[in-house]
Amino acid sequence: LYQMLNHGVSTGALFLLVGFIYERRHTREITEFGGLANVMPIYA
To answer: % helix / strand / coil in the chain, to the nearest 5?
Structure first.
């Protein structure tokens, strides 16, 4: 039960972070994420 709860929370958090990055960069292409640490240092 504990493992299922942790899996749900971590999966949800990862999807949330992907959504934040997409909203800031407006692309899903990994090659266009160059310099992400300069633009979004907290998420890098």
So the answer is: 75, 0, 25
Q: Is the pTM of this model over 0.70?
A: no
pLDDT, tens only, 26-44:
888 878 877 778 877 887 6
d(CA 6, CA 25): 29
Residue 11 has which token pair? 């999966």
For 2-32, letters b (16+ CB in 10 Å) and e give eeeeeeeeeeeeeeeeeeebeeeeeeeeeee
